[in-house]
Fold this protein.
Amino acid sequence: MANVATAPAEGQILVSIEDMSMLKDIKKAISMVKGVGKITVPRRRLYSAYELSLRDLKEGRVTTHASVDDYFKKFGL
């Protein structure tokens, strides 16, 4: 008896786009392909200033100074 592999009922494809100005045209072209059910474009998450600050702290992109005077001395003021 032969083993028969069946194709999945639904699949996904990931397309990376370098020029986002072409997104509308690319979505239109993909939607014309037979069998395409829906096209979704994930949105980038926008972080608040507080969340960005916490990320900077976690990744070590902060500096500390003993006083405001030391901070200004760093810039020669």
